[in-house]
Amino acid sequence: MRFSINIPNFGDFADARTVAMAAQAAEEAGWDALFIWDHVVLDKKERRGQPFGDPWMLLTAAALATSRLKLGTLVTPVARRRPEQLARQVATLDALSGGRVIFGAGLGGPIEDEFGSFGEPTDPVLLAERLDEGLDLLQRYWSGNPVEHDGKHYRVRDVTLLPAATQRPRPPVWIAGFWPHRRPIRRAARWDGVVPLFSNGHGNPPPLDELRDLLTYLKEHRKDPRPNHFEVVVGGLTPGDPAKARDLIAPYAEAGATWWDERQLFTTDALHRLAPVMRRINQGPPTL
């Protein structure tokens, strides 16, 4: 199992210099990755007045401050972005970081705030179609090969985006979705990893029985059953005591999780404050 730090792109972490400092500390403390949220306003009522940073600028700062740490978004709503622009952002970061990017994607939300606020469609079926079509375009753009596309939502005529992504054939793509919704898990089965979300909320370790049910369903839909070709990402807030943290995480590793994503509770200000996040970073990742 590998271990990542998860931070939002708002509050204290809207500042690229702060994110660079956190990333450098995470690398020095032995963490394997840093993941950043990709929101514009999130919940307008709750977050009004808070600054938000662009995740790709924040990750660029993190890449320049580190040499080993994996970097990515958890998660980017592909339907809210132009695939060609997103492809360039990811490929540029992949080159800058020496091939350390992991691309997390999902439907995004809350839909009314994140899409409706800007006059974008809010039909989740349409957004899911854009997500699937956009993901297909992204991997074709990252290849560096010519792209012709005539889809339901996107048209492309004689385009070759260079340079290609540094990682071959492309950066890993992890798909997020709420369990027990089946469609996002079937989508994840076609890519490189799954980041399941559960009803008990961000920062709370997922119910173990629900994770096992998800993994059983996922296995039924994976065309490539080799476990080393697919990542299962779960997370939450671990205790500061190493033995208690190990006891918490071990059952998830035994169930089939390959990453533990360290997350602050969504319901507290520690989520977007530097001090509590840095305390956890400097303690280092759990050990199994």
Automatic annotation (TrEMBL):
Residues 15-180 form the Luciferase-like domain. InterPro entries: Luciferase-like_dom, Luciferase-like_sf, SsuD_RutA_monooxygenase. It comes from the Bacteria. GO terms for molecular function: alkanesulfonate monooxygenase activity. GO terms for biological process: alkanesulfonate catabolic process. Pfam families: Bac_luciferase. Keywords: Flavoprotein, FMN, Monooxygenase, Oxidoreductase. This is LLM class flavin-dependent oxidoreductase. The lineage of its organism: Bacteria, Bacillati, Actinomycetota, Actinomycetes, Mycobacteriales.
